[in-house]
Design a protein that fits this description.
With about 280 residues, the chain is α/β, with parallel strands linked by helices. The chain is built from ten helices and twelve strands.
């Protein structure tokens, strides 16, 4: 198990070499650093596009789907963001790698549903980019359940999580959530609203904890209430985290990642402990 980036993400070494990744970047320094790092870590050979024409040709010359694009906002021949718009129009998932950034830029990127954005303004930029790439390529291994009686809230969270490549199931009530959990043992994270008509978020969390511990499944409670004590009540009911609406996208994704990273680390330690126990029995 290898640690990546600065967040403590674990990468188990699964084969990612089959991913087709385009790198739309005109800086020789960054293309070299990114290409070398993704090759070292994951065995991925990136396709480098140094201008807008290269990007268009890369898409046109192959029928193989593009798994992910890493793109600068401003590219030669597309100085006003046309390259990013081109990729999004083609429904290609994009991680933006840019040195040009301010609040208006952030709002525009989030509205365009980019997977992530990484700033070039620090020495960890390439490592953070590699981690973001790895998360996108491996997030499909995680099954997340969203529980909320509001169709709008469910749709919003589903859109956000699918943007990051998670597998997502939804339930509009606590009872349906419990049924889905029985049928889907691979669900590793539940994001549940507090205020629901049949079973509220606290009671749902208690019932989940009666059959599945935090080493098996993580629970994040959410609410639009202004009651600051809700977080304490969720944690005391067995929840692992709590967030108030409206969410900040970056914080939401960070909390999801932190909980799933913790789950992976717990599972790894339990597996290692079980393996060590078997080894000792064999010696005995």
């Amino acid at each position: 198990m290898t640690f990546l980036g600065i967040s403590g993400m674990q990468y188990s070494g699964q084969d990612l070499a089959g991913a087709r990744i385009l790198l739309a970047e005109d800086s020789n320094v960054f293309t070299s650093m990114i290409g070398k790092r993704l090759k070292e870590l994951f065995g991925i050979e990136v396709e480098i596009c140094r201008n807008f024409e290269d990007l268009q040709l890369a898409y046109d010359r192959s029928t193989d789907p593009i798994t992910l694009a890493i793109s600068n906002i401003n590219l030669p021949g597309a100085e006003n963001g046309e390259a990013l718009e081109y990729l999004i129009d083609l429904s290609v998932p994009v991680i933006v790698f840019t040195g040009t950034f301010h609040e208006d830029t952030r709002e525009k990127l989030l509205k365009q549903d980019v997977v992530d954005y990484i700033l070039k303004d620090n020495v960890f930029a390439v490592e953070m980019l590699a981690e973001s790439v790895c998360r996108f390529l491996t997030n499909h291994q995680h099954h997340v359940l969203i529980v909320d009686d509001s169709p709008t809230a469910r749709a919003l969270l589903t859109s956000r999580l699918k943007r990051y490549n998670f597998r997502v199931s939804t339930a509009d009530s606590g009872a349906k959530a419990l049924d889905l959990l029985k049928k889907n043992a691979d669900i590793g994270l539940v994001v549940t609203d507090y205020n629901m008509p049949d079973i509220d978020g606290f009671e749902l969390t208690r019932r989940i904890r009666s059959v599945r511990g935090s080493h098996e499944l993580r629970v994040i409670g959410v609410s639009s209430s202004d009651n600051r004590l809700l977080s304490a009540r969720f944690l005391k009911a067995g929840g692992n985290d709590f967030m108030l609406r409206p969410f900040i996208d970056e914080e939401f994704y960070c909390r999801v990642n932190q909980n799933l990273d913790t789950l992976i680390q717990i599972r790894s330690m339990r597996a290692a402990s079980a393996s060590a126990g078997q080894a000792q029995k064999s010696v005995a």
